[in-house]
Model the fold of this input.
Amino acid sequence: MIDASPAAKIGEAVAGSPLGTALRESTWLYPTVETLHIVGFALLFGSIVVIDLRLLGLRRNVTLRPLMLFVLPVTLLSLSLVVPTGLLLFAAHATELVGNRAFIVKMVLLFAAAINALMFHAGPYRAEIDAPPGSSPRRSTRFFSAVSIATWIAVLVAGRWIAYV
Done:
């Protein structure tokens, strides 16, 4: 018999934990966590896409710094909801998820979205944050913003497909 992969062993341990078991066996706990995860992602995507659309050139009359100051707390709040609920959802079905292609794609896309955001904030962001209203975003800014929107849509699609793959 072939030994299970390290990922499969971890999945089994997490799913077999008291937390994983409670999430699977409770009538209301798992659906509540899943609902909070979806609400968190809606807030996260909404807060990110507002900034990305502005950086693509929509509503150039809106100054970026105040918009960022308004949206950033929503982004951080949504992350504080999405990450723990995602970990709980993983705990409930870790055994299945470690081998689920849609889940793996979602994780890779999340990593890509984070790298895109870091690259943007390390480069074009600094030039755009105080750009005067009405100015056209730089090509690199538009690129990072388009990649961001596409990646986050792909994350949402992959997340939805987890149940069907």
Residues 8-164 form one domain.
